[in-house]
Amino acid sequence: MRLPVVVSGCGRRKPESGGSTSTVRSGVKRPRTVPSPSQSAVVALVSLVVPLLAGLSGRPSWPAGLVTLGAPARGRGDYTHLVLVRLDSTGAAHPLEHAGSAMLRGLARADGFAVIAPGTDGAAGDRVPFVALPILPGSRP
Fold first, then answer.
1. For the chain: N or C, fewer Cβ within 10 A?
2. pTM, to two decimals
3. E strand or H helix at 30, and its extent?
């Protein structure tokens, strides 16, 4: 992970991490955003750390299942692609915008990740694996 550049003076300057900064009264710039790639950190937590901690503590892993895609979801060539999705009232998964690895807007609205297999694209109506974000019921508006 690259740390943002800290500079003194006035005005605005982008840190090397890709986020923006703001000047505080001391003249030191501090990052206003989480350093990139924040979504990648969540993917690692959900796909590696949560199952690892569950296994080490003897608890069942966060439930995974299948969802029906409500809209097409592009794959990533020869790689498995985790697509941020929001579930609608029927349970259909819709890919979200603002889903780049450094973007938090899409992640904040997501219910989880639809898993698109290597070499494929997900078409509307396809049943695909789903990895839910560990969000407690009632914690989302």
1. C
2. 0.64
3. strand 29-31
